[in-house]
Predict the structure.
Amino acid sequence: MTLPRLSFLGTGYLGATYSICFAELGYEVLGVDVDEAKIATLAGGRVPFHEPGLDDLLRRGLASGRLRFGTSYAEAAEFADVHFICVGTPQRPDRMSADLTYVESTVTTLAPLLRRRALIVGKSTVPVGTATWVEQLVAKHADPTLGVEVAWSPEFLQEGFAVEDVLRPNRIVAGVRSAWAHDLLAAAHKGVFDLAATEDREVPLVVTDFATAELVKVAANAFLATKISFINAMAEVCEVAGADVTLLARAIGYDPRIGHRFLQAGLGFGGGCLPKDIRAFQARAQELGAGEALRFLHEVDLINTRRRGRVLNLAAELLDRPVGPAGPDLSGTVVAVLGASFKPNSDDVRDAPSLAAAAALAAAGADVRVHDPQAMDNARRSQPALSYAPTLEAAVTGVSLVVVATEWAEFRNADPVLLGGLVERRLVIDGRNCLDPAQWARAGWTYRGMGRPVT
Ligand code: UGA
């Protein structure tokens, strides 16, 4: 069977990763974006964001001749049998619902250019009902004699593990309307199934209607967000009860019905997906008359936001600073914030709890210095008012408080004795519960974790 040719429309995080990984799986791939600079970077062999392992695969794909990048939708229309929509669906200014402008422009640009039968597959995270709307757009803008069809196949990749998640997904979801669409979408994933077979694994293909496929994605992210906020709610209770949430999580996680993953209490979730997806999901449920069913997600969001504020109060407590009606006054203090990305192994600072905490400390009057192993450029653009230190050592030298806000290995493995010699005061807030409190206490530090007792 000849493999279908694939186009990925939108080469942001999602589309670039898929283009590169599917070329690695043996497909002929064209990645298309309206952003010429982004395309030039990718075509030049450089990934415009930090993702472990992706640079090597990009260079291999380009060298193989199977992977190309361009800005022409006409070229995509002529080239591919399957077109994957990978454009962003950002939050609207109401900070709740999703903006589908890019999905719309992608479909209405591509559809009139198609000259043969093709399958348009949505991958972007969208409100339920979008696939049917895309189908209507296609009916309006594509030549009706061609039989162009739509399918929906959400993705579940995590930044930092994206290559693995695309090459070895734990499931493929296929929202399809016809056997033709089913077979073509299956062929577009043959490389994934074949790789699994060589490794004696199986990748389940879950075939659904459109609405279920769309909901699978937001339901999965809502569940993950809820799991994190659950353990952070337990952290709040642990703080007043004098208990340790890390031990609690360890103990409950041994029950396989609960599991240990995504049970890490700390500064809470951030990034370009979980926060925005749970809000868009609530907005859509409200529109459909099922707002009550998702009211708990509002609470999930509130718990998450409260964790960021906790750092501020802990800082005031450790630094023995007054807390007035407007919050703690940290003026005259120098604080190092370690971590700017929303999680380790990523340079993404979108809705990063680390930067939010840094900004809150600065707003309370502290002189804040931020260091991150990968996200410095993005952080500077997002929070230009903060100051930035080029190394971990430079960040902590002379400070009165260290806040670990992202659990990069460089911070987890830092030597508290060495850092203790650089700071002015040995005070540390472990915003990700990633340090060993006993080791830091032995080196003379006063340690505060999230949801952990004062030792
Ligand atoms: C998330 C989902 O995990 C992916 O499955 C999904 O495909 C993706 O969104 C998406 O919608 O595209 P991602 O945003 O890369 O992936 O990040 P996660 O690994 O889910 O982490 C999200 C946030 O939760 C991070 O800020 C992380 O620090 C935090 N987190 C995670 C915790 O606070 N505790 C945990 O136990 C786990």
